[in-house]
Design a protein that fits this description.
3 domains, single chain, five-stranded mixed sheet, binds zinc ion, three-stranded antiparallel sheet, alpha+beta, 58% helix
């Protein structure tokens, strides 16, 4: 009996699929009538669908696969973000370098004021000056009178374009008055004011460097500290901690950009510098966010 059971057990799969000869089928059927064990086994083989808990098994196998796929997607996004941010920073570095104003000291500027026969005033520069800014300044205690302040610089970008400041006509006041004085702001020398035309004021005067970038720097520092502290306090709340990290990256990026691009807080072109700082900070933010995303995906 035992030996027969072993033989039947081996034949059962073929028997269930009707892949045995009629003689073998008859023998197996005869044994199944006599042997309850083998009959039960044959019964199980005939109901494969009921026997295997198929849907749950495939779901269990698919879940890790889905996670791997999702992880791969995130990694791709992180790498794309990193590449974009790095490319942006590289382009920005070149752009920033090319457009940086190199202020021309007065003695190289060749700045001279001319008055035409019709009274129109202009200022001419040497070839060393590629760009200039002419700023009318109201004199506080003399509403009709005004002065002109001139800033002159060169930049790599201007040189590529072959740009020259040349001769610039000075703006008139709304009352068609000519300026009382014309000053050259020597930014290369801490903003010394040199009088090109008219009687210089008693105070002589210097251009004050704009210091608001310092205030922005410390505001960013305070924001970074606040976000960092909250991040530590809320470390158990994963969603809040993640959001706070992305918030924290913003002031950190700005601080990094400031430290790399500026020396201290003194700026004679603060508006331009601020735009440059924000652009550089955006690039740094992309790098920080990309690295963080990449590190999160590797944890799986
Ligand atoms: Zn049997």
């Amino acid at each position: 009996m035992k030996t027969e059971c072993c033989l039947v057990k081996d034949l059962l799969p073929l028997y269930a699929e009707n892949m045995v000869s009629d003689e073998t089928a008859a023998l197996v059927a005869e044994h199944l009538n006599e042997c309850a064990d083998c009959a039960a086994r044959a019964e199980r083989l005939r109901q494969p669908a009921a026997e295997i808990p198929a849907p749950e098994a495939t779901a269990d196998e698919a879940a890790p696969l889905r996670r791997v796929k999702k992880n791969l997607k995130k990694r791709k996004a992180a790498v794309a973000l990193l590449a974009a941010a790095a490319a942006f920073l590289a382009v920005f570095a070149v752009f920033s370098h090319l457009t940086r104003p190199n202020y021309v000291p007065f003695e190289n500027s060749g700045a001279a004021v001319h008055i035409a026969a019709n009274g129109v005033m202009s200022v001419s520069f040497s070839e060393a000056v590629t760009s200039c800014r002419v700023v009318p300044v109201q004199i506080p205690d003399a509403p009709e009178a005004y002065e002109i302040e001139i800033e002159a610089w060169s930049s790599g970008w201007d040189k590529i374009l072959g740009k020259k400041a040349g001769t610039v006509v000075l703006p008139e006041s709304p009352a068609k008055e000519q300026p009382q004085r014309v000053y050259y702001c020597d930014m290369a020398k801490q903003g010394d004011l040199l009088c090109l035309y008219g009687e210089p004021r008693d105070d002589g005067g210097i251009v004050l460097p704009r210091l608001f970038l310092g205030a922005y720097f410390f505001a960013a520092l305070a924001l970074a500290a606040a976000a960092g502290l909250l991040r530590v306090l809320l470390r158990r709340n994963e969603k809040a901690a993640t959001a706070l990290e992305y918030i924290l990256f913003a002031p950190l990026s700005y601080l990094a950009a400031h430290l790399v691009l500026l020396q201290g807080f003194v700026s004679y072109s603060a508006a331009r510098d601020f735009v440059m700082l924000c652009a550089a900070a955006a690039g740094v933010y992309g790098i920080l966010a990309g690295v963080r995303m990449l590190r999160k995906t590797e944890k799986y």
